[in-house]
Amino acid sequence: MSTGFKGKFYRQNLLARYAKDLVRRSRSHCELCGKNGVKLEVHEVPPLDEEPSVEGCVFICEGCHRQVDDPRKIIPSHWRCLNNSLYSEVPAVQVMAFRLLRHIAAMGEHWAEELMENAYLDPEVEEWANAAE
Q1: Which letter, b or e, does each residue of 87-96 get, where b requires 16 or more Cβ atoms within 10 Å of its Cβ?
Q2: Could you tell me if 26 and 59 are in contact, meaning their C-beta atoms sit under 8 angstroms apart?
Q3: Do the Cβ atoms of 74 and 102 come closer than 8 Å?
């Protein structure tokens, strides 16, 4: 992965190019909570590849982005929507939903634990979800 200011700028520029594809894929809705009519941001799902790709990104609202970036700010009730995200056709969305549910379940939220117990992820998606632990 590129490092330094130049590398970060290059990566951000590449991610900005994916916005049009992500708008199409998400139908201008947050891919985690489903909000529409709000500003959406590109978020890369770790672990990061050498070169960013649309498949490794999710398009999420500022509220979700803020909580994903700082787990101390997670509001469990906001994430009850993950039931839908967990069954998305997009593997990156499934990975983010599963990781968030795992974190919320660790906070003692039983509904998140139940969702995780009932979830089925393809083996590759499950491996990706566990890769950044």
Answers
A1: ebebbbbbbb
A2: yes
A3: no
Q: In whole angstroms, give the CA distance from residue 110 to residue 93.
A: 22
User: What does the alpha-carbon distance between residue 36 and residue 14 come to, in Å, rounded to a whole number?
Assistant: 24
Q: Which amino acid is at 16?
A: A
Tokens of 63: 């509220």
Q: What is the pTM of this model?
A: 0.90
Alpha-carbon gap, residue 75 to 104, rounded angstroms: 9
Map residue 108 onto helix, strand or coil.
coil
Q: Find the domain containing 65 and state its range.
A: 4-131
Whether omega before 47 lies within 30 degrees of 0, making that bond cis, reads: yes
* The total number of structural domains that make up the chain: 1
Residue in the structure block whose two tokens are 């969305």: 93
Tokens linked to 105: 């379940």
CA distance 73 to 31: 19
What are 23-43's pLDDT values in tens digits? Answer: 999 999 999 999 999 999 999
